[in-house]
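User: Run a structure prediction on this.
Assistant: Running it now.
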Amino acid sequence: MAERTLLWDVFEYVFEAARRRIRLIRTYRNPIFLAREWADAIKAGDFPSRRAFANAIGLSHARVSQVLGLLRLCPQALTQIEALGDPLSSRVVTERKLRPLNMLSGKDQESRLKRIVLNSL
């Protein structure tokens, strides 16, 4: 019985040491890249509607519409967001942060986007 306890203690020690060494590296999708991928999938004809696409990927049609709505941002803002790359190492920009920009003019979108990025760094 003592041997089993000793072996189990050694196993626990090795397991704990291994768990401490493992560090998860989280990555986040750039919402513009995601929106372009979804738009391309819908345009390819695989899905007759946004609702059908949403059902296929397990999201609500409202969420799909929110993400695809980001493609209505001005071209300069889209270029700036794409320049951040994909994937992102942190949540520099998210769909929820970018959604209000659609209600602004092009110049205002650019200035607000700069503030969003600077506040996230």
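The chain has seven helices and no strands.
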